[in-house]
Each structure stands twice: as C-alpha cells, then as structure tokens.
Amino acid sequence: MLKIAFDSSYVYPLPPKHRFPMEKYELLPQQLLHEGTCSEENFFEPEIPNDKYILAVHDAEYYYDFLNLKLSQKEIRRTGFPLSRELVYRERLIAGGTIQAAKFALEYGIAMNIAGGTHHAYSNRGEGFCMLNDQAIAARYLQQKKLAEKILIVDLDVHQGNGTAEIFSDDDSVFTFSMHGEKNFPFKKEKSDLDIALPNETNDKEYLKILKNILPDLIEKVKPDFVFYLSGVDVLATDKLGKLSLSIEGCKKRDRFVLETLKNQNLPVECSMGGGYSEEIKHIVEAHANTYRLAQEIYF
Fold it and tell me: Where is each Histone deacetylase domain found (predicted)?
C-alpha cells in the first residue's frame, strides 16, 4: 500500500503571504482523494522525531537556537520564513514524516511525504525556506538503525541540493546526486558527489536524454540499498523561480523513468516533493499528482 505523510501543519503555521504555493500541500491530498488515486488509508499523520535523530545531522547550537526561537535576524531572513513555535513544530514534523515514510518504503517499496525536500538546510543553518534537512535526517536514521548502509539521494529539483551536499560532503556512505538549473538559486553551489548543471531553457527531450544516460550507470556504480528521491516540479517551464522548460508531460516522464528504474532494481525509495512555484496552482498540483499516480501504477 502506498503510504503518504500529511498533516495540516504543513500549511497553516505560515502567514498568509507565505502560503502560496505552500497551499499545494493541502490541495494535493484533496486532488488525490477526489480522483480516486488514493483513499484515506493511504495517508498517515507524521510524528515529531526524537531530537537525537535531528542532531545526527544538524549542529546542536544551530538546532537548539532554532528550537528555542533564538536565531539571529540575519539567520531568520536567510530562511525566508518568520520564526515561530508553530514553524519549529512544522519543520520537525516534516522531518518525522520523511523518517516514517522511509520505514514504510522498506516495507512497500515506496512511500511519500507530501512536504519535505528541504535540501537547502545545512548542518549549521537554514536557507531558502528550509530549516531542517528532512531527507538527510531520514538517511542518517536508517543508517543508525542499521536499516540501510549505502544511500543514494537523487535530487531533481530545479535548485541544487546545496545543504544536502554540505551535510554529506565527507561521507562516502551517502552519495548525493543533484541535477539542477545552472543559473538558478543557490548562486553559490556546493559540491555534490555528482552535479549536473543544466543550461536555461533545457526542454523535455534534452533533460530526459541526460537523465537516462546517467541514472542507471550511477546506480550500478553506487550500489545503494536505499534511495531518497526529491521530485521537485519547479523544472516546469511555467515555474516562476525556475529557468528550465519542461512540460507537465515531460516532468511525468521524468518521474516514470526514475520510479521504474528503482522498481526494476528492487530499490526502496522515499519521495519528498520539493519545490513548485508555477503562477497557477493547478499546474503545481497536477505535476505533483502525477508522481503519486505513477507510484500507484508502478508499485501497486
């Protein structure tokens, strides 16, 4: 059964001016239920993880300053969100959802978090709407619990996973792969284990050709026993913050290739949604919904 982490706290701690496009986190479950792709039993309420799992990734000074609302104004501005207790709860809940989804993926082959993909969160700071790095925390959790040894993070958001790259920069047990827009934020990139920087206006054909030439060989080289997939839909041509030119159908083909490749290799995968900032919310929801439709089709 496809298991999906969702909680209304993904949306409602945020001030109204910050809710678009974060309201996708509420609209996406509604769409999946309405069309029959999912039922209520597919969704689970995430739980706050023990601090020790967050501290396995994030520096204690940064984490406790965040937890106790003691970040500096400069640190707060860097994240893009106003700091509040509700936001702290939200960020911890998202991390917990990804941990739980990773455990469900070991059982069912795949599991999802409606939110997550907070790949701009560094070990010692937040930025770009990311305070705690959910997939990094879940990756380390699996390793601590001896549920996985070698982990591959496939980050196909339009923005480089700079925080994830920094966190695992000296760790051979987690391989970070980021395929992103060369001219997109962050403008100072970190060094992932593999970075593919794409020129502006890269289209479906070019994007898929590059991905198909890389991913199977990368899996063969890395030999992971677990994969985290960041399936951002800010690669769309309609995205306000992205500079690539994929169509919704091209984005769906991307997800199909990734999920079919992992399924054929019997590799469990946790998917976090990442970014999506198109002008019309319907484009964001449709592109994200395709990931769930494909998960049901391919795995169940």
Answer: 18-289
Whether 18 sits among the annotated catalytic residues: the reply is: no
**How far apart (Å, rounded) are the C-alpha atoms in residues 241 and 284?**
13
Supply the pLDDT for residue 42. 98
Start-to-end CA span in the chain (Å): 7
Number of domains in the chain: 1
Query: Measured between alpha carbons, how far is 279 from 11 in angstroms, rounded to an integer?
Result: 18
What are the pLDDT digits (tens) for 17-75? Answer: 766 668 899 999 999 999 999 999 999 999 999 999 999 999 999 999 999 999 999 99
Q: Give the pLDDT confidence score for residue 187 in this predicted structure.
A: 86
Nearest to 27 by CA among 115, 96, 95: 115
Q: What are phi and psi of 207, to 5 degrees?
A: -60, -50
| Cα–Cα separations (whole angstroms), residue 141 to 101, 144, 243 | 12, 5, 34
Alpha-carbon distance of 214 to 69, in angstroms, equals 42
The answer to whether 202 and 191 have CB atoms below 8 angstroms apart is no
**Domain containing residue 286: CATH number:** 3.40.800.20
- Please list, in sequence order, all residues whose beta carbon lies within 8 angstroms of the beta carbon of residue 167, skipping any fewer than 6 positions away: 57, 122, 123, 133, 136
* pTM higher than 0.90: yes
User: Quick one: average pLDDT of 227-231?
Assistant: 98
**Among the options 119, 120, 159, 288, which is catalytic?**
120
User: SS3 of 204, please?
Assistant: helix
Q: How far apart are CA 261 and CA 267, in angstroms?
A: 9
Q: For residue 250, which amino acid is it?
A: G
**Residue 210 · residue 250 · CB < 8 Å:** no
- Asked, as a colleague might, if the bond just before 82 is cis with ω within 30 of 0, I would say no
Angle of helix 85-108 versus helix 134-144 axis, rounded to 10: 50
DSSP H helical segments within 84-124, as ranges?
A: 85-108
Q: How far apart are CA 126 and CA 133, in angstroms?
A: 9
